[in-house]
Write a structure and sequence with these properties.
Elements lengths: L42 E9 L4 E9 L5 E10 L7 H6 L3 E8 L2 E7 L7 E6 L4 H7 L4 E6 L1 H14 L5 H7 L10 E3 L6 E5 L12 E6 L15 H19 L6 E6 L8 E6 L12 E3 H10 L3 H4 L2 E6 L3 H8 L4
Helix pairs in contact: 5-6
Enzyme class: hydrolase
GO cellular component, one term: mitochondrion
GO molecular function: 5'-(N(7)-methyl 5'-triphosphoguanosine)-[mRNA] diphosphatase activity; identical protein binding; RNA 7-methylguanosine cap binding
Amino acid sequence: MRTPPAVTVMAEAAGAKRKCERPEELAEPAGGDGGSFPLAELCVRRVLRESARDKTIFLHGQVNGASGDAKDAVVILEKTPFQEESVSDLLKKHTRLKLQMSNDIYSTYHLYPPPQLSEIKTTVVYPATEKHLQKYLRQEVYLIRETGEDYRNITLPFIQSQSFSIQWVYNILEKTAEADRIIHENPDSFNGFVLIPDFKWNQKQLDDLYLIAICHRRGIKSLRDLTAEHLPLLRNILHEGKEAILKRFGVAGSQLRIYLHYQPSYFHLHVHFTTLSYDAPGCSVERAHLLSDVIDNLELDPQYYQKRSLTFALRADEALLKKFQEAGKA
């Protein structure tokens, strides 16, 4: 799932009845590009999830194809962070205030900025599968404590039985897509990688800086596959990634959180780079493993991640959770 151009849209309240409407302001496709997602054709079916803290809402919609068949889409709307250079315009130019409450020296207003200063970052998955819909649907979450044996007997067979498409990863590595977004590349086919902005970062401010290092070498699915053989690759990612980010964005390595997910969202080895000030999704202790710690652990024991127990969270609807339950492990 990658980022399309950001667009500004209006979404109905979660509890309201949803209708298929084509408002005038949505008549032009996102970005004004004929190949863009047909936003004006979207019929919102339901709210999958929303977060008041993160200012995001996840929508399930459908678009009618030329043959009349409806294709599912996931649309994620996210309020973008303030940009220092535009704050003055936000307060002074064509902005309307509506008083909500006043008491002594304190007052609360609703501020209505002009469209060019009220951008909403919009991420689209289209056409979306049932797996995508379930991924973004709010679910209960359970912790799993996976031993090395559990991985070999339960998790690995499950991964091998699934058809997880990562063609978009290969498109990046082969430069058939997003080549202009690559920040740094070590082209070595064995110990090299590309560094690219994550779709969650719009690159307009550094507070939520988020980049991904994707290794060129195929066949490394996750943390569980790593051995001492992979130390040169991991060290390259750690050191070259920090140097590239310092050179391009001026953010020092001591201000970065550099980590791997377990379990990852896709099974091709990749490493996350975020600023320490950004509470990024998936940076919690039950999922994130600092790259520097991973390197240290492999230096101590080349088979460390084949042996140790790893804790991770699974949603109630995930098939892997059912596998662990059937094995009496959850």
